[in-house]
Amino acid sequence: MTQINTVAVIGLGSIALRHRRNLKQTYTSATVLAMSASGRIPEQEVACADYIVSDIQSLIAAKPFMVIVASPSTLHAEHSIPLLEAGSMLGAGTLDRFFNIVLPSTKASFITAASLGFAHTVGEFGVILMIGGNIPGETRVLSIALFDHVEAFDYAQAHLLAISLLAGSMVLLSAIYLLNRAAPKTPKTAKKAKGK
Q1: What strand order describes the sheet that includes 31-35?
Q2: Distance between CA atoms of 26 and 98, rounded to whole angstroms?
Q3: What kind and span of H or E run contains 9?
Q4: Which residues neighbour 29 within 8 Å (Cβ) at sequence distance 6 or greater?
Q5: pLDDT digits (tens, 9 = 90+) for 79-134
Q6: Has residue 157 got a pLDDT over 90?
Q7: Residue among 191, 194, 180 at smallest CA distance from 71
């Protein structure tokens, strides 16, 4: 079994705390790092963390065995609950509230999940070979074509396919990043209400 020395958990909320607590129980000798997703250093002590990392350079320098990003997909749900209640009081139906309140606030999460699911499927190798076989023109995907070129010692074509997979993944990840940046931020009114 591989020795796990350092694990990083990005996020400081309840989900991240759960991850850090489970890691401390599972890997008692591992060093658990905590990092805020926003890059802010917390004012209070972070539970179940050995060190708090302030930036990505420090995180990379620590060379963690794994990094867990604990960011809930329902990040804006707590701000949507009063809107859902208001919509209900104003007579909006269930579907109307879902499409006009819930879906816009969690749109970035749905886009990210669908995109990453697609990217995983494009790069899939083992399951496609086991279930679909390697039928050219029918069940052949880029990852299997790349494997076939490497087996045939056709490295030039294999390099072209590898570069196309890399370029495709970079385009997809950049699109996800840009879509998530364009997602609506936490409403200021909700922050003020929470602080009172």
Answers
A1: 51-53, 31-35, 6-10, 66-69
A2: 39
A3: strand 6-10
A4: 5
A5: 677 888 888 899 989 899 888 888 887 777 777 778 777 877 777 777 777 777 77
A6: yes
A7: 180
DSSP letter (8 states) at residue 137: T
Decide which of 83 and 184 is more confident: 83
Specify burial of residue 183 (Cβ count, 10 A radius: 0-12, 13-18, 19+).
middle
pTM, full prediction: 0.49
The number of helices, as runs of H, and strands, as runs of E, in the chain is 10, 4
**DSSP per position, 69-117:** E---TTTTHHHHHHHHHHHHHTT--HHHHIIIIIHHHTHHHHHHHHHHH
Q: How many CB atoms lie within 10 A of CB 166?
A: 10
Q: What is the spatial distance between Cα 164 and Cα 157, in angstroms, rounded to a whole number?
A: 11
